[in-house]
Amino acid sequence: MKFQPKASHFIDGEYVEDTAGAPIDVVYPATGEVIARLHSATPAIVDKALAAAKDAQRAWEAMTGTERGRVLRRAADIMRDRNHELSVIETHDTGKPIQETTVADATSGADALEYFGGLAPSLTGEHIPLAGGDFAYTIREALGVCVGIGAWNYPTQIACWKGAPALACGNTMVFKPSETTPLSALKVAEILVEAGAPRGVYNVVQGYGDVGAALVTDPRVAKVSLTGSVPTGRKVYAAAAGGMKHVTMELGGKSPMIVFDDADVENAVSGAILGNFYSSGQVCSNGTRVFVQEGIKEAFLTRLAERLAKARIGDPMDPEVSFGPVVSQGQMEIVKGYIAKAIAEGARLVFGGRQLDRAGFYLEPTVFADVTDDMTIAREEIFGPVMSVLDFASEEEVMARANATEFGLAAGVFTRDLSRAHRVVRGFEAGTCYINTYNLAPVEAPFGGSKMSGIGRENSKLAINHYSELKTVYVSMNDVEAPY
Ligand code: NAD
């Protein structure tokens, strides 16, 4: 098989197999063909990976930040050099067009490695002057062994967004990719070793949810970072709480995008396209509830339909193709279920809505208008190419409706009115907000959700706080005064 890796897992610097684990078939979403067969980790594999990570941690932390950072930056360079090869793997793993994977996956993984590699030498504590010449200082220490658990939409990026800050701080990692897209994290592990990471610093084990659960509860693990759905997040957070472990939760969303009458229509349509159909709509921060003010509604829908008609749907390996299949048969069925429900509940289908008559898991980009807040497609995360357009009249009304959700991942506003734009984002109950754009996630800026969409932030300097802790040292310069 063309994409068959040397073995399923990467532990202690090398590929490791244990065929006793349940099989994992890797399916190319564009054809339905099996392109690799891996095995889920057995308890012995999980143990081996955690033992390797534990053994490697102290020596890795004892290296200087400059040395650790150099490894990460070298890995970033190797990833960029191999961008094409890595993008081809990512396209086969996920079905995302090569046009996208070439610019958004290994490249954003490399950005994270470079950014946190650059930060590593300057991660320090601080000096705190106290009364009478006493002082305290803080030491920034690694947490220990961190577990990363990934979703299937951005497998390379997620492996790096978790691995880079963890390793920069002196932690080691055991990463479990989604069982749907297991290939690229193995490449990240290989590249880190090639860049000079000592054995055991970054390990990859494959598996279903039970493997993730076994990792989370193991006493050797100090921190868990999950990218996944809210129901999984609830379980993982609860399991981590038993061991008082640190967590980062990057979960789902049903984010609002508000388009006011005075918005630039072309930009708003571009934002809505990016925020609903990039990666066939399988992006956590997507603005899937598009609130359009009454005066601009017809112009918006007309341009949206004209622009969507230009989407090139087809073979994701064709560089001209801009819209590929969804990740799996199962995901396609879920999305089709939502489309049927939307029609049954009275939403007006204005574009798409069908499965393509070809092999693979292809759905058309789909737009519903006249969606109301109570409809299922306006309330639940679909994670597929389905946009809901909702009408609104006033700012006050739309803000209340935009926030009336348990999710709080992202939110966006399109308007030419500067003060309204800032007022609106201040009012959003969401972790990541956009003004006159949508869905950018550069490594320099914090990314993450509030409410049920998550805990903690990835990227930026803030991520350091989620992968390290401070030890406080009190130093007396005076005699010790005791009462007796
Ligand atoms: P999922 O929750 O089904 O699975 C996520 C990961 O958790 C997988 O690796 C899975 O094997 C593992 N898992 C499942 N049960 C587990 C358990 N009990 N203990 C430990 N691990 C377990 O999510 P998915 O379908 O792979 O991904 C889609 C979801 O991820 C969507 O909700 C999407 O919004 C979200 N997501 C969020 C972000 C973000 O940054 N906020 C990014 C991408 C995707």
Q: Can you describe this structure in just a few lines?
A:
This protein has helices at residues 43-62, 65-81, 83-94, 98-104, 106-119, 155-168, 183-194, 209-217, 230-242, 265-277, 297-308, 329-344, 376-379, 395-403, 418-427, 462-465, and strands spanning 9-11, 14-16, 23-27, 34-39, 127-129, 135-142, 145-149, 172-176, 202-204, 221-227, 246-250, 256-259, 289-293, 348-351, 366-369, 386-392, 407-408, 410-414, 432-435, 450-451, 454-455, 468-475. With 484 residues, it is an alpha/beta fold. It is globular, with a radius of gyration of 24 Å.
What does this structure look like?
The protein is built from 16 helices and 22 strands. 38% of the residues lie in helices and 21% in strands. It is of the alpha/beta class and 484 residues long. Strands 14-15-16-13-12-18-19 form a seven-stranded mixed β-sheet, sandwiched between helices. A six-stranded mixed β-sheet has the order 9-8-7-10-11-21, with helices on both faces. Helix 4 packs parallel to helix 5, helix 5 (106-119) packs parallel to helix 6 (155-168) and helix 6 runs parallel beside helix 7. Bound molecules: nicotinamide-adenine-dinucleotide. Residues 149-153, 176, 178-179, 208-209, 212-213, 216, 227-229, 232, 235-236, 250-253, 284, 381, 383, 409, 449, 454 line the site of nicotinamide-adenine-dinucleotide. Nicotinamide-adenine-dinucleotide is lined by residues 149-153, 176, 178-179, 208-209, 212-213, 216, 227-229, 232, 235-236, 250-253, 284, 381, 383, 409, 449, 454.
